[in-house]
Amino acid sequence: MVRKKMRRALALWVVALGVTPGAFADTPNVIKLGLSVPLSGSGANWGKGSEWLCKQAADEIQKAGGVKVSNKVYNYACVAYDNKYNAADGAKVAQTLLNRDGVKYIGGSLGTAPTHALQSLTEREGVVLFTTAWGASIKGPKFPLTFTQMNTPVEIAPPLVRYVKQSNPKIQTVALLNPNDATGQETEKLARKAWEAVGVKVVASDWYDRGTTEFQPVAAKLAGLKPDVVDLCSSPPADGGLVFKELDATGWNGIKVVEVGTGADGLLATGGHAVNKAYLGAAMTFDGPGVTARQRELNQGARAVTGESLNAIQVGFYDAVKALKGAMEKAQSVDPAAVANALPSVTFDSFYGRAAFGEKSVYGSAQQILVPVIVTQIQGDKLVEVARISPDELRQRTGQ
Questions:
Q1: Confidence of residue 137 (pLDDT cuts 50, 70, 90)
Q2: Conformational region of residue 335, where left means phi above 0, alpha means psi within -120 to 50, and beta covers everything else
Q3: What is the arithmetic mean of pLDDT over 169-187?
Q4: Is 166 exposed, middle or buried (0-12, 13-18, 19+ CB in 10 A)?
Q5: Cβ neighbours, 10 Å, residue 45
Q6: Which has the closest alpha carbon to 326: 310, 312, 311, 342?
Q7: Counting runs of H as helices and runs of E as strands, what totals does the chain give?
Q8: Buried b / exposed e along 208-225 (16+ C-beta atoms within 10 A)
Q9: Angle at 133 between CA 84 and CA 342, to 5 degrees
């Protein structure tokens, strides 16, 4: 009798709060999705938007009836911690998620260095890891539980650079600038290869530390080389705007590229008119005729949280949740090994439309999400989509 009264009191308390028992991560049949993301520093907007989109996808799945596996219904709860975009804090987050929270699925990790710290545990402990990290070194048959949830420079750089070259055929030289960390170092190699593949000479490749706010010296150095193009590769939007502003002050007026540029807002906020005509490889627009009502709704919601439009990094966290649902239902299991085995064979409804995992020919196993590469350009104070390039493998499997 006492227990019944306690349960009734708990139920009344839950209703009074306006939530359901399924909202609590420790409720049976709720699967925790751990997130290792920057929630402070220059990458904070990426992390906050990623956490928000993970929760939106989980909420959509719950409202649609949940994940149906072996006569049970499961739902997801997203649990995020701040990795501060570095290896040391990434290792702390990894320990917290796996050892304290006991997660069996990482719904997303952001940053190559934090992901390396996390992956050293997830593969050993049988945990599925989704990541936006760009390094090819984290994929392959040695890492069967790791899946990349967004286009990386391996997928973005070649078609983006080809498009820029075709649109500006007189380009002959390019200077590269990257953050001096694991992400920047891996991206620099891919950017260099992509430009050289279209016959453009790399006249300089420079570096800066994350957290830098004074870019005049490096801008002066780059401008002095008079490159046709400056490619900021993996630089965050706020940093990119500052660099282009300083380049503009020197009188340099070449072609601007941010291969993994994730949006116009941050660039415009710090760079103003100096970022006009910059090409971006990981940004999205939400005002064209092909944009769905739900995409606009999600973008507006994210703006309220971060002050910026959604980008491909954040969308990856939404897509990972949808991919998990598809794989769990195909495997009819919530065991991580069974789900990881099913992921390469399923197609699922992503933010972009039907999507899948593939690229076995590139990485040695099918661990890379297949979604379009969207090339955008800042025109005045607006971001305009100028090309959408779908991978051949995606077209073969989904017809998109």
A1: confident
A2: beta
A3: 93
A4: exposed
A5: 26
A6: 342
A7: 14, 16
A8: bebebeebeebbeebbee
A9: 125
Query: How many other CB atoms are there within 10 angstroms of residue 276's CB atom?
Result: 17
The most distant pair of C-alpha atoms in the chain lies apart, rounded to whole Å, by 83
- Contact yes or no for 330/346 (Cβ under 8 A): yes
> DSSP code of 305?
H
Alpha helix stretches (DSSP H) within the chain: 2-17, 44-63, 87-95, 112-125, 153-167, 182-197, 216-224, 237-250, 264-271, 293-306, 312-331, 336-342, 360-363, 392-398
Distance, CA of 327 to CA of 236 (rounded, Å): 32
- What is the arithmetic mean of pLDDT over 152-173? 96
How far, in Å, CA of 321 to CA of 57, rounded?
6
Query: Hunting for tokens 């992901």 — which residue is that?
Result: 115
Following CA atoms 239, 242, 243, 244 in sequence, which dihedral angle do they give, to the nearest 10 degrees?
120
C-alpha pair distances (Å), 306 with each of 49, 265, 266, 297, 311? 6, 11, 11, 14, 11
Over the range 249-267, which residues count as b (16 or more CB within 10 Å of their CB) and which as e?
eeebebbbbbbbbbbbbbb
pLDDT digits (tens, 9 = 90+) for 194-241: 999 999 999 999 999 988 999 999 999 999 999 999 999 999 888 999
DSSP 341: H
- The domains found in the chain, sorted by start residue, are 2-151+291-371 (3.40.50.2300), 154-280 (3.40.50.2300)
* pTM of the predicted protein model: 0.82
> Burial letters for 311-339: b for 16+ Cβ neighbours within 10 Å, e otherwise?
bbbbbbbbbbbbbbbbbbbbbebbebeeb
Tell me the backbone φ, ψ of residue 77, rounded to 5 degrees: -130, 125
